[in-house]
Write a structure and sequence with these properties.
With 370 residues, the protein is of the alpha/beta class. It has 13 helices and 13 strands. The chain has two domains: 256 residues, Aspartate Aminotransferase, domain 2 (3-Layer(aba) Sandwich); 109 residues, Aspartate Aminotransferase, domain 1. A seven-stranded mixed β-sheet has the order 1-7-6-5-4-2-3, with helices on both faces. A four-stranded antiparallel β-sheet has the order 10-11-13-12, with helices on one face. It has a two-stranded antiparallel ribbon with strand order 8-9. Bound molecules: pyridoxal-5'-phosphate. Pyridoxal-5'-phosphate binds next to α3.
Amino acid sequence: MIDALSDYYSRYNSNVHRSVHTLGEEATAAYEASREKVARFVGTKAQNLVFVRGTTEATNLVRFAWGHRSVHKGDLLVTTLMEHHSNIVPWQLLAQATGARLEFVGLTQDGKLDAAKLEALLGQSPKLVAVAHSSNVLGTVNDVADICAKARRAGATTVVDGAQAVPHMPVDVESMGADFYAFSGHKMLGPTGIGGLVGKKEVLEEMEPFHGGGEMIKEVFLDHSTWNDVPYKFEAGTVNIADAIGLGAAVDYLSELGMDRVRRHDVAILKYAIETLQRVKGFRFYGPADPAARAGVLSFNLADIHPHDLATILDEEGIAIRSGHHCAQPLMKWLDIPAASRASFYLYNSPEDVDALKAGLERANEVFKV
Ligand SMILES: Cc1ncc(COP(=O)(O)O)c(C=O)c1O
């Protein structure tokens, strides 16, 4: 990925879609080849993939370009208590702007979606159902194909936040049936500042543009403009060429490894981590106990040690954990904790890393006299 970035900047740094010179054509070909690869990787066609900055920009694109035309006063928007703020706040803002109301699907004690509450909300014919494919705190993997099918029968448009799923498991958006699917490159070995929004072609075509400016138009007159075809209608201005090409290289790497293997490694390391870390005094973790029902992350607390203190102690051992509210404050309130620590596992982590984390937690217990 780093070599792909460096190759672009050193050899054919040029803008895309506008120049007839050789460098411009090479950059355009590489950018569009990357779109093909990334689209294939998540099970869709290139024309359905909009390059965005990441999941947050993707949900906000949907909020403006779909929401402002399709959502009206009194409509119901549904999201869940396990969402990252980027799948809550855009819908709050949309509800405030349109007079719609926002309701949340609650959770069961083992950190799964409350199916009865979801059914009840679907019974009220929501306009939108927005749900995480996998939670960035609980690790829970939701059956998004089933949720999308039920939501579609209820007449709702679906937005699936795939930020924690695309890096960790095979994803096929078309068979899932989501209207929109969002993900971020930096969580899947790609560069920062690049991600994807997959949309159904007919839905993307009906939508308003998001940003206005260069390249998203067909023709501009003094009093109006007409829009470029999708996905270009949503890629105004100079796009993030280098990072899109870098994401393509990351996807090549992941595809070569095989996402089935990545997923198997994920489940194995989570199983080992749950078994191993539970032996540490005061350790309690959140989300499903079955590693096969989870992906990637293991959030926990250790006795009453504040996660920031724990992160500082582990940092001295060369162990980087995330600590805080994880951009999921409603979930923290539901769990009745101010914050949590999180080990975020990926394909480069080994059982030895888990052993090192266990030793670090034991040291923290000694320091805090747990
Ligand atoms: C589940 C989930 N959704 C959304 C996001 C937001 O992604 P980004 O910051 O790349 O827009 C994250 C990132 O932390 C996440 O874990």
